Amino acid sequence: MNSIKELFINRYGLSPENFDLFYSNITEVTRSKGEEIISKGEIHHSVYFIKKGAVRSYYINADGKEITYWFGFEGDVIASLGNFVESKPSLETIELLEDVELWKIDRSKLLDLYNTNIELANFGRQLAEIGLLEMEQQILLNQVTDAKTRYLSLIEKHPQILQRVKLGQIASYLGITQVTLSRIRAQK
Amino acid sequence: MNSIKELFINRYGLSPENFDLFYSNITEVTRSKGEEIISKGEIHHSVYFIKKGAVRSYYINADGKEITYWFGFEGDVIASLGNFVESKPSLETIELLEDVELWKIDRSKLLDLYNTNIELANFGRQLAEIGLLEMEQQILLNQVTDAKTRYLSLIEKHPQILQRVKLGQIASYLGITQVTLSRIRAQK
DNA sequence: GGATTCTTTTTACATATGTTAAATTGTAGG
DNA sequence: CCTACAATTTAACATATGTAAAAAGAATCC
């Protein structure tokens, strides 16, 4: 175990007892760079927490191009929201950018915990609410600032991202082509 | 009361008893077009559900321009997420586009309910998770599709939006200028 | 109903971004 | 160390979008 435990306890206010209850339902797994942990079109029955490593979530657009729209790092949650919330096939693919250590839990087991333990239910609520806040900030950032600013704030937030993620993937995340990203990088 | 009750019971799986408990903490209020229900820089202590009417959430960018990034209609939740989740001053302003009927509840009262009633805690969790799914879809839509497609899908989703919202606000929501929106509208 | 104000569209021009392809640089394997 | 392949940058051109200002169209008020 490790710092995720502290994250759970400090950030989400879980008591040690209920953390242990939660953790007793976790399986620790490792997966290799390049693997897909969630694949487009499929139904998945697990939710993951990233203990170590980096992942990306991408969508294939009408032209067949991969559009990266989320990067996940240590402490983040991996789930296909369409899957989890509405039991629909996943629209996105989640791919491992590095070798990854994960905490895995069954969706149905997690829902059981939520429905029987009020502290865990509120843990799940806060998990979702913090995700909401982060997503809102991303929507705002995408709408308010230009690609150059977003690029700079991305590398400020994740200083090692340039070593971990290819520029083409970062460009699609920023909503621009790789050529434009190269021009931005050449500027400063 | 009205169709929001059915929404709560059918969509979020609330039992009638717990809906009544929730509703006993609600104050029904009406506000007039043009008012600000949440203002930038302030701390707010309420959460609202839209019974009738339309609102928009906007942010003022570095050039002093209002950037609309969310429209809310019947059934939607109004809260400053930064306020609600992290007790920080609101970055956004929420303005009423029409005369509006709202359900109002104190943030602290809502948290009390979440912490004492497991069904309501899971109601709150689902509220946030469904919001997550919607936001993810918007992020995806913004990244994958061009402004014209997004414009068409917006009026498909909210057919009356052109009667309720000004084009300049829709343009900023789409991330383009009003001139470009006019060109798009002239095309088809 | 006419004047005033607000909203939307159109025009002309400058600039930024996309596209395609070539050149360069970096990386991994034998 | 060399080769082959992958990733990134650069170049040239076409297109789309932004800016600023004017024109046209709607709505409001007296």
Task: Write up this protein.
The structure is a homodimer of 188-residue chains. In chain A, helix 4 (107-116) crosses helix 5 (118-144). The longest helix of chain A is centred in the last third of the chain and has 27 residues, at 118-144. The first copy, chain A, is an alpha+beta fold and 188 residues long. Chain A has helices at residues 3-12, 16-23, 81-86, 107-116, 118-144, 147-157, 161-164, 167-174, 178-187, and strands at residues 27-31, 36-38, 46-52, 55-60, 66-72, 77-78, 93-96, 100-106. In chain A, strands 1-8-3-6 form a 4-stranded antiparallel β-sheet. A 4-stranded antiparallel β-sheet of chain A has the order 2-7-4-5. Chain A has a domain at 3-108: Sandwich (Jelly Rolls), CATH 2.60.120.10. Chain A is built from 9 helices and 8 strands. Chains A and B meet through strand 5, helix 3, helix 4 and helix 5 of A and strand 5, helix 3, helix 4 and helix 5 of B. The structure holds a DNA duplex (30 and 30 nucleotides).
Blueprint of the fold:
2 copies of one chain form a homodimer.
Chain A: H1 3-12, H2 16-23, E1 27-31, E2 36-38, E3 46-52, E4 55-60, E5 66-72, E6 77-78, H3 81-86, E7 93-96, E8 100-106, H4 107-116, H5 118-144, H6 147-157, H7 161-164, H8 167-174, H9 178-187
Helix pairs in contact in A: 4-5
The structure holds a DNA duplex (30 and 30 nucleotides).
